């Protein structure tokens, strides 16, 4: 299960129990949440989305408004993320660049893996980004929807909920997930990166392994079946 507490935010007033927050949430309150901390707002959206089928009408409305606000932030980001800045962050942040507005991780796609990717239908929509050396993996686990964080020690993505593991480009390595992480198309124009969250490609089938990347250190969570 995901943790019961939200991570610390710059505003102490936002540090409240998850259940309390979800019960009390109102559309107007969300505007304040988003303005103070877009990252926190993203976590709220993730939690609301995970309550699929259990959301009250008010929570559904709140989710709709929150997603619209995040979409606006994403469009803003699209104009501002330079490829050089992303690569620099990837280097300084141990291999991963997280975009809360695109709800995805950008990682380096190795040039030597390109010939293998070019022969696979599920990589076709991603080729423009791969040729720029970048791939964007959706943060949502294709098993039951938990957010999948990076594991710096193994250099994989490892899901805290049921232990699914994916290599650094989102190809499934272990656990109960039915496929690799879904991806978004990436393009680069004039040195500026766009992650097109309207163009999501389903993750590759189990067994696809274009990079051959093995775990590079200890795992953060155990693999499960
Ligand atoms: S939700 Fe990720 S392994 Fe189940």
The ordered string of helix (H) and strand (E) elements is HHHHHEEHHEEEEEEE
Number of E-type strands: 9
- State the secondary-structure class: alpha+beta
Radius of gyration from CA coordinates: 18 Å
Distance from N terminus to C terminus (CA atoms, Å) equals 16 Å
CATH topology of the largest domain: Rieske Iron-sulfur Protein
User: How would you state the average pLDDT, rounded?
Assistant: 82
Largest sheet: 5 strands, antiparallel
- The proportion of strand residues reads 15-25%
**Bound ligands, named by name, code or SMILES:** FE2/S2 (inorganic) cluster
Under CATH, the homologous superfamily of the largest domain reads Rieske [2Fe-2S] iron-sulphur domain
- Count the domains: 2
So what's the overall shape? globular
Name of the CATH class of the largest domain: Mainly Beta
Strand order of the largest sheet: 1-2-3-8-9
Low-confidence stretches: 1-16
The number of helical segments is 7
Please bin the fraction of helical residues: 25-40%
Assign the CATH architecture of the largest domain.
3-layer Sandwich
Protein topology:
Elements: H1 18-24, H2 27-36, H3 38-50, H4 57-78, H5 83-92, E1 97-99, E2 104-108, H6 114-118, H7 127-131, E3 134-138, E4 150-151, E5 156-158, E6 165-166, E7 172-174, E8 183-189, E9 192-201
Antiparallel strand pairs: 1-2, 2-3, 3-8, 4-5, 5-6, 6-7, 8-9
Bound molecules: FE2/S2 (inorganic) cluster (FES).
FE2/S2 (inorganic) cluster (FES) binds at residues 141, 143-146, 159, 161-164, 175-177.
